[in-house]
Amino acid sequence: MLKKLMYLIVISLFLISLSNSVLAAENSDLNSKNLNQLFLSGLKDYKAENYALAEQKFIKLLANDNLDSGLEFSSLYYSTKTAIYRNQIAKAVNYLKQMDQIGYQSANLNWEIAKLYLNQKNQYDSADFKMALEYLKKANDLGINQIEFKRDLAYGYLENNKFKKAEKLYKEIIEVKAQASDYLALAKIKEQNKKFKKAINYYENALKLNDSESSLYLNLAKLYQKTNNNKAAILTFKKGINQKADFTPYYIGLAESYFELQNYNEAEKYLKKAIELNNNSYYGYFLLAEVEVEQGRLNLALSNYNQALKYNPNYVEAYLAEGKIYLKEKDYYRAISSFSIAVEKNKDHAASRYYLAKAYYQAEMLEAARAEIKKALHLDNNYPKAREFLEQIEADLNLDKNI
């Protein structure tokens, strides 16, 4: 029995030795003969978009100690590319670092990684513009000069609030091959710098290149509103409606401009259309209530403020507007209720405390009025008429005027 056991042990050791010899021979064969073949096989998988399989083969190559520098670079390059195509930023960055360590750099790979950080295909929850700009700048330093790259670099600067550098690049781009997005970016930069006329000019140029983009009409019309050119805003909103008739912000914008021009009938018409398109538009209901107030229909106004609050229970402006109607109608306790809710929703809002103080004052609750107006002044020492109101309250209470 012992002799048989010894035979089994000897045979097992022989088989293990033989297996190791075969593996060593295979590795030796891979090192000397088949490295190029394995790389070409990985490259074939890469071109066939079998990226996971390609990466496995490139990793196997990179694990080989006898890999020459050319194959090492190529394996790292395509490993980086496979990670990029699979949206694996961490892997791509790691492979790129390994390339840097062996003395190879690639402008295109830095650009491709930057594109992932820009989230151009919406493959992630959000973009990382800071990291995107870091890799875009590396690519730029390595000499890449394509117009599409410049556009990405300009966008990276724009999203990192480096407006001067972004503007310089966008101006270079529009001299070569302009797109609507380039003019839109320049318009936003000018708007940021309060140069509204130049911003309007850029928006108009953007529309010449793309007259079907909803945001262009909306942004241009909003800018006209900002410069008090409501007639131009109305024309622009209507052009937008001709392109996209079911876009609610156009109708809201039209109503705002007509409201500013005191054309309440037109404002009401477009607000009702906006609410028809989006029944949850709390701002639409709020504006409709404002129109009703201007026309003296206070009960209808209260109904619409209530609708606005139904869809946005935190809408402080609606509570204030509601409270002002109650104050006007001398329904002081309802006014106090509305203004108190406004304060509760935003304790740092000076206007809410000012109007709550007014309601308390009208209800002859002078101490409460004094406490609230002092809080309003604490939040905003320059709030209009607040200090005079405090002096009036303290005079009624026969108190000193100091706070």
Briefly summarize what is shown.
This protein has helices at residues 2-47, 51-62, 69-85, 89-101, 107-118, 129-141, 147-159, 163-177, 180-192, 196-209, 214-226, 230-243, 248-260, 264-277, 282-294, 298-311, 316-328, 332-345, 350-362, 366-379, 386-396. By secondary structure, it is mainly α. The chain starts with a helix and ends in a 7-residue tail after the last helix.
What can be said about the biggest beta sheet? none
> In oligomeric terms, what are we looking at?
single chain
Number of strand segments: 0
CATH topology of the domain at 212-313: Serine Threonine Protein Phosphatase 5, Tetratricopeptide repeat
Give the overall pLDDT as a whole number: 90
- State the CATH superfamily name of the domain at 212-313: Tetratricopeptide repeat domain
CATH architecture of the domain at 212-313: Alpha Horseshoe
Instruction: Give me the secondary-structure category.
Output: mainly alpha
| The level-1 CATH class of the domain at 212-313 | Mainly Alpha
Distance from N terminus to C terminus (CA atoms, Å) equals 107 Å
Question: Fraction of residues in helices?
Answer: over 70%
Fold and architecture overview:
With 403 residues, the chain is an all-alpha fold. The chain has 21 helices and no strands. The radius of gyration is 35 Å and the shape is elongated.
